[in-house]
Structures are given as C-alpha cells and as structure tokens.
Amino acid sequence: MYRFLFLALCIASCATVPKAARQRLPEWMTGAFTDDYGIRYTISDSLFVMNGPARYRILEWNEKEQYLLAQNDPANKTDGGLFTRIDYMPFRGMEPYLWGYCLTVFNAKDLAAARQAAAADRAAPRKGCNGYPFSRMKRVE
What we know:
By secondary structure, the protein is an alpha+beta fold. It is built from three helices and eight strands.
C-alpha cells in the first residue's frame, strides 16, 4: 500500500507542466475579443478559441519572436489534431483594435514543423499574413 502511495506521489510530483501553462500571455492579449470580420474569440494562457469555428490548445509562447504554437482541437471541423503557429503583433494608433494575429500555418504535422514555419511579415500587416491582412482584434466590453 505504501509503495503504491509513494509511487503515485513520485509520478504526480515529476509530471511536467506545459510551457504555456507556466507562462502568462500579456494582459492585452487575453480575454474576450472580436476581430474586424465579426468573429468572437476567448483567449487565455492555455486556449485560443475562435468561438464557433475552432479551438487551439496553446503549447508554447515565444515572447521575443511574438508567436504561439498550438495544437488544433481534435473536434475542429478541419485540421483537427494538427499544429498551428499563430504570429501576433500589437498595434499603435489603430484603436479600438489593440493587436492582430495571423494563422501562419494551421495544418503542420507536428510541433517542430509549426515552429519552423516562416514568420508572418509584421512590416506589412495589410498583406503580411500569407498575402492577407492580420486579423485585427478589439476587446469586447
């Protein structure tokens, strides 16, 4: 009995916490948002949810290079279980839009492929997302 409890305690204490769970996204990037296409979002340190179409579980956050790596929810209508790179950038002078994002790649076969995807072009946010504009995000009051 004691061996089982000891083993269970060791396993629980040795379990790793995903990198995204240890890091907190910037406050300006979490909460409820709508984009300039009318899609609503709920974003936390661990989930990026496009209300209705898709859910992404955040696995890593690269603050310096401004991107998130996520795994697509298995229940997503397309690309379920695959991996996504979400590049983002804060905006200045575009109020009420605070920031924008780009699904740089949304169907990578693994996390390494998503990580290695070419970054979105933040110098040209109107076409830097694979030829399309970054989706602009404003907070829902």
